[in-house]
Amino acid sequence: MEKIVNIIEAIAHEKGLKMSEAKEAVSTALIKTAQKVFGEDYEYTVHIDEKNKELNLFQKVLVVADDDERLQENTEDGEKYIALSEAKEADNELEIGDEITYQLSLDNMGRTAAAILYKELEYHIQRLLEQNIFGRYKDKIGELISAPVTRVDNDENTYLEYREVQAILPMKSRIKGEKFKVGDTVRCIIRRVYIDKKLGMQIEVSRTSPKFLEKLLELQVPEIKDELVIIHASARIPGERAKIALSAVTPNVDPVGATVGTKGVRINAVSQELHGENIDCIEYSTIPEKFVARAMSPAIISAVRIEGEKAIVTLPGDQKSKAIGKSGINIRLAAMLTGFEIELAEIGGTSTTSKGESSEDTPQNNPDALKALFGD
């Protein structure tokens, strides 16, 4: 098997793998080949002779008593067990329970074994490459990327070429109304990295995640990038509206003003990337009541009372429609942003409740259902 050692070195050099990783992959492929050629019931091991640059395949055989019933399991094609008396002919010091090995050769097994070995090598090297790539990319979750479109399938899933891997932008993670064609450059964030048993390593990207909004703001607002302005939370109804909670680390920085920019130039640049999504910037507060009241903007709130995970918001009757917003968007976003279930209590009137939901896990917009709950 001397040629196999040369293959290991070539594979390691060509694929950018460590020698130890390439050796393990080739050894595994060789053992899998032996199992298919000689039988899966036998135990095999591979030894690499670094000095002579030889790779040898061995079959393990267990030493048992001469009257052991397991000797009957041996076949003409191979042995799993050897009687103690027979084993002692080769080595007098062997005892019951010891293992001895026989060297096997694939050199003379013909084209079938060679074809099997080639497929096994290809498979295990590919899995090793995927594991290495997975290790590099799993820490990139949440990062902003730009990549060209290579394909759009019949289900409107968009495939991007990102470095040495393919990324997929599912239709559900695309802003409502936008479409891409081959050659377009798409900006998105890495949502998750995983290994599919059939397709190999996959990178899923998103344009609907609140983190995408945060990363776009970081690009446009130097104060956010320099950590002078902190993003505490964000919530989106993709393509419709978003809310983001901000604070400054120093009193001389206005977090909302810095994020909006002169004449709204910064926030408008982000909104344009999000297909006109309206973005409300509010100042974060560690006081839950104040935070909820600000999150309900543009409605003017009279009082907020926190009861566990519920925030009861009292407001004048003429502010209720503003608090709810068109199709219930404002109250939904406020609930998503603050994490509280928000109940509106009109002064001298009825109440309305909304729970926060992630924009990644719910439909982007369901006007009919929301109108049924909140009205226009």
Question: Could you explain the architecture of this structure?
Answer:
By secondary structure, the chain is of the alpha+beta class. It folds into four domains: 2-137, N Utilization Substance Protein A, Chain:P, domain 4 (2-Layer Sandwich); 147-205, Nucleic acid-binding proteins (OB fold (Dihydrolipoamide Acetyltransferase, E2P)); 208-284, K homology (KH) domain (GMP Synthetase, Chain A, domain 3), CATH 3.30.300; 288-376, K homology (KH) domain (GMP Synthetase, Chain A, domain 3), CATH 3.30.300.20. 34% of the residues lie in helices and 29% in strands. The chain is built from twelve helices and 16 strands. The protein has helices at 2-15, 19-38, 84-90, 111-137, 210-220, 222-225, 255-260, 265-273, 288-295, 320-324, 329-338, 367-374, and strands at residues 43-49, 54-64, 81-83, 99-104, 144-152, 158-162, 165-169, 185-196, 200-206, 229-237, 241-248, 278-283, 303-307, 310-315, 341-346, 351-354. Strands 5-6-7-9-8 form a five-stranded mixed barrel. A hairpin with a 3-residue loop joins strand 10 and strand 11. Helix 5 crosses helix 8. The longest helix has 27 residues, at 111-137. The protein is elongated, with a radius of gyration of 32 Å. The termini are far apart.
Report the mean per-residue pLDDT as an integer: 84
Major beta sheet, specifics?
A: 5 strands, mixed, barrel
Give the overall shape, derived from the CA principal axes. elongated
Order of helices and strands: HHEEEHEHEEEEEHHEEHHEHEEHHEEH
Total of helices = 12
Instruction: Name the CATH homologous superfamily of the largest domain.
Output: NusA, N-terminal domain
Number of domains: 4
Share of helix among residues? 25-40%
Task: Note poorly predicted spans.
Answer: 361-376
Instruction: Calculate Rg over CA atoms.
Output: 32 Å
Distance between the termini: 77 Å
- Looking at the structure, the CATH topology of the largest domain is N Utilization Substance Protein A, Chain:P, domain 4
CATH class of the largest domain: Alpha Beta
- Class based on secondary structure composition and strand pairing: alpha+beta
How would you name the oligomeric state of the polypeptide chains in this document? single chain
What portion of residues belong to β-strands?
25-35%
Strand order across the largest sheet: 5-6-7-9-8
CATH architecture annotation name of the largest domain: 2-Layer Sandwich
The number of strands is 16
